[in-house]
Amino acid sequence: xxxxxxxxxxxxxxxxxxxxxxxxxxxxxxxxxxxxxxxxxxxxxxxxxxxxxxxxxxxxxxxxxxxxxxxxxxxxxxxxxxxxxxxxxxxxxxxxxxxxxxxxxxxxxxxxxxxxxxxxxxxxxxxxxxxxxxxxxxxxxxxxxxxxxxxxxxxxxxxxxxxxxxxxxxxxxxxxxxxxxxxxxxxxxxxxxxxxxxxxxxxxxxxxxxxxxxxxxxxxxxxxxxxxxxxxxxxxxxxxxxxxxxxxxxxxxxxxxxxxxxxxxxxxxxxxxxxxxxxxxxxxxxxxxxxxxxxxxxxxxxxxxxxxxxxxxxxxxxxxxxxxxxxxxxxxxxxxxxxxxxxxxxxxxxxxxxxxxxxxxxxxxxxxxxxxxxxxxxxxxxxxxxxxxxxxxxxxxxxxxxxxxxxxxxxxxxxxxxxxxxxxxxxxxxxxxxxxxxxxxxxxxxxxxxxxxxxxxxxxxxxxxxxxxxxxxxxxxxxxxxxxxxxxxxxxxxxxxxxxxxxxxxxxxxxxxxxxxxxxxxxxxxxxxxxxxxxxxxxxxxxxxxxxxxxxxxxxxxxxxxxxxxxxxxxxxxxxxxxxxxxxxxxxxxxxxxxxxxxxxxxxxxxxxxxxxxxxxxxxxxxxxxxxxxxxxxxxxxxxxxxxxxxxxxxxxxxxxxxxxxxxxxxxxxxxxxxxxxxxxxxxxxxxxxxxxxxxxxxxxxxxxxxxxxxxxxxxxxxxxxxxxxxxxxxxxxxxxxxxxxxxxxxxxxxxxxxxxxxxxxxxxxxxxxxxxxxxxxxxxxxxxxxxxxxxxxxxxxxxxxxxxxxxxxxxxxxxxxxxxxxxxxxxxxxxxxxxxxxxxxxxxxxxxxxxxxxxxxxxxxxxxxxxxxxxxxxxxxxxxxxxxxxxxxxxx
Amino acid sequence: xxxxxxxxxxxxxxxxxxxxxxxxxxxxxxxxxxxxxxxxxxxxxxxxxxxxxxxxxxxxxxxxxxxxxxxxxxxxxxxxxxxxxxxxxxx
Lengths: 893, 91
Hints:
The structure holds two protein chains of two kinds.
Chain A: H1 2-30, H2 40-46, H3 53-66, H4 72-82, H5 88-97, H6 103-110, H7 115-148, H8 160-177, H9 188-216, H10 220-229, H11 239-255, H12 257-265, H13 270-289, H14 291-301, H15 311-318, H16 322-363, H17 374-400, H18 404-407, H19 409-418, H20 420-429, H21 435-454, H22 466-471, H23 492-514, H24 519-529, H25 548-559, H26 561-575, H27 586-600, H28 602-613, H29 620-695, H30 701-733, E1 741-744, H31 745-759, E2 766-768, E3 777-780, H32 782-799, E4 806-812, E5 817-823, H33 830-833, H34 854-864, E6 868-871, E7 879-884, H35 886-892
Parallel strand pairs in A: 2-4
Antiparallel strand pairs in A: 1-3, 4-5, 5-7, 6-7
Helix pairs in contact in A: 1-9, 2-9, 2-13, 3-14, 3-16, 4-11, 4-13, 6-7, 6-20, 7-8, 7-16, 7-17, 7-19, 7-21, 8-16, 8-17, 9-13, 9-14, 9-16, 10-14, 11-19, 12-16, 15-16, 16-17, 16-28, 17-25, 19-21, 19-23, 20-21, 21-23, 25-26, 27-28, 29-30, 30-34, 31-32, 32-34
Chain B: H1 17-41, H2 56-90
């Protein structure tokens, strides 16, 4: 009991020590002194989480069972690190430039920020890692039992140990793994604690090794001799497994979530990788150096039937070296805890970024930027994920019952995670790798792994029915889980590794070749494959639409107020903006998205920025849509322009019409006063003279006659005026009846000239005519036409102010027929020209002879006849053109 | 009359000695893992079995010897590369 108590005390002290280390590291980091926290040595030591309790204890057991095969899982990773120039350098650069947070994030980012792929890889990682965590809990429990076996009745404390360890680990991880939501996802405290644990486990194993070789084996050469003499004395390996496991462990080293976490995500500087390239193989070499001696001496000294997996612990214990045994125990404890901590962090990052956050975003769709605090949601999601992952491991341990089944799960898990390799390597080396390819490869590989290795690993009849395993599903022998396509006799692990990787890679390549990647995929592909040529990431956003303030609010919730404000201010300064908010330029959005991606993953960050920016992610389709829109807008604006021109024209016309209306209104007033005046003048004289005739006695007969004829004349004038008005109104109302007849133009003109001349003493007007041209036959209302001509000739007679008045009547025969009346007077002023055809418009008051209705009547008549009458400017005098329509003229031919 | 000036920005056909050395170092860094793989696959050719098999002590010496060689080789290359790069950026 004392031993167990001591052990528990040591364990607790060690845990407290780790907490203190992590806490101190966080404090130091807070003060900004990260230099020594982030040294290449710490980076290299943190990689040692590759060596879990499974390898710490299990390597010796493996050496006892299969000789040197245990080495392969160290050789693979050593080669990967020695070959850092090929893969790791690129992976780390990509991780840094794209702010990758996990394996799932890497795959998702590379293939067009696809969340589907991220979820797939996350599931794979959870399925592959949970048994591994269970394995760690088992090893801690077993090592506890070694000490407690002497003191306790068997089975008494069993199980509780695992629970306590699991709870403690979850607590530690929650405290130090979710301390901050840094953009770069670095956990200083955790990394430091792991580095310390790495030193502890190496020291423990070396101490046991030195004790065994020099304390028990009797020196180096003696030990070597003992090895040669033992059951492991001769070189004996399965060649296929030797090469296959080396390859498998190399692949798994690149893909295991916890390794990726420390290798890429926690990487601080690329030069650290250079140090690790030789230092980590050295670490692995030292870790495996004493395994065979411990195994051989253990076989020699320990009683037959004791568990070789625990030789590291039981050997010193059996020799009475309690202190060494406790150190060894702490080494195994460290191996287990550091693995669980980092695995939980890596998995929780994946689960919260790729499963919880997208779900939360979808559920809280409209208000993601308004309601709730995303930062706290992310942290909560991550904490719950950590607890969930660790507890899942514990549950797995309880349900599987520990034992052999669990011990084999390490390599099974390796094969599972290695399924990510084709998509990962294809993604960073081959631009043609597409999302569909990655999805196909992962699905095939995952399915094949599950069917041929994972499910059978529980034993026949647990998940796969017994007859399936022995005879194939539905009796299809070639589909037997451990002998696909009838190839029997292979090692089950190699069989599964070979087939799953073959199907995975084949599917990946074929689907990639056959599919056409999305624009975003192609951009990301170029960014990943050519990461050394151009480090900035692809243009993803077009600015202008995003509201910087909304972005600020969102960024604050994720990065924390201080960091977000500093970020925005820095950007604003860089842009030279005056306020604290920068313009949402594409560069800025891109940078912001990357920062956010460091906290919540690329796909989620993309979605969040997209939500605020309004999904303005630029794809070729979007560009085409934008181009379409632009074309539509251009067309629309062209149409608008045309419309506005038309409007301008219409407005001009309206203005003209308005001016004319105004003039017409003035004219109407003038017309009213004119008509009253025109009626009044003759009436006045008629009344006056009729009163004289009535009231004055003794008028002479001559006077009576004179007055009576004045009255008569005025009455005639009145009648004529009224006739004219009536005529005009009839014409205007279109109620006129045309009296169509055949005739010759010359006769009509003769009659008009005679009538006009007969009016009064106007013989002075000389009328020049063209008798030949006038010989045109007409079919029209000849009386009305002559009325027009009479009017025009009379006007010329009245108004032509030349000394020798002359009127030219020019006839242009043809279609239409044109008759011009041109005098040699001073003509009509331009401003009066468009008014002369209106009623009561008279050019001058002085010469006012008529009521000003003549031309108005003329126009009405000509219009009725289907022709036109217009003033003809620029003829040297007043000139009127009468145009008679084609059919009249034709009919006249 | 003056002869045409030689073009200034012509890509050098031969790298300067410094960069040439650096590139060969990179090549060496690339080759090293393949060499390691080859050496570690050599045990596949060894005779096996309790009778005529290679002795385990020799196997241990060989395997860990290769390991040490890789660690040393990698460390030397990284150190040399770092020095070259420093010298080049320093100039």
